[in-house]
Amino acid sequence: MGRILRIIIVTIIVVFALRAIRMIWAALTGGGKTMAQGRGQQGARGPSRAQAEAVPTSGVLRKCGHCGVYVSEALALKEAGGAEPVYYCSSECRKLGQA
Ligand SMILES: [Zn+2]
């Protein structure tokens, strides 16, 4: 009986150890990727989060009315002419798109 109990305890310890190793391994390798995907999550990456706020890359994407490239609404040049506003990726595209 004591022998079986010891085997069970050893098995539990091994399982916990393997899980801990896997968690550490995930944090060292794949953990960074999952953090980057969840950009909305707060606190994980301080400096890069501040960078993301300085240059808004998230949010609504608008298609350039001339070249068709997708640009963040915050960075796009808005041209409220017709019924719907037209967005341009750059001033050159705005000039060419209006011509
Ligand atoms: Zn463009």
Give a concise summary.
With 99 residues, the protein is an alpha+beta fold.
Question: How would you characterize this protein structure?
Answer:
- This protein is an alpha+beta fold.
- Helices cover 52% and strands 12% of the residues.
- It has helices spanning 2-28, 31-37, 46-54, 91-98; strands at 61-63, 70-72, 77-79, 86-88.
- The protein has a two-stranded antiparallel sheet with strand order 1-2. Strands 3-4 form a two-stranded antiparallel ribbon.
- A hairpin with a 6-residue loop joins strand 1 (61-63) and strand 2.
- It is rod-shaped, with a radius of gyration of 26 Å.
- The mean pLDDT is 79.
- Zinc ion binds at residues 64, 66-67, 69, 88-90, 93.
What topology does this entry show?
Blueprint: H1 2-28, H2 31-37, H3 46-54, E1 61-63, E2 70-72, E3 77-79, E4 86-88, H4 91-98
Antiparallel strand pairs: 1-2, 3-4
The structure holds zinc ion.
Residues 64, 66-67, 69, 88-90, 93 line the site of zinc ion.
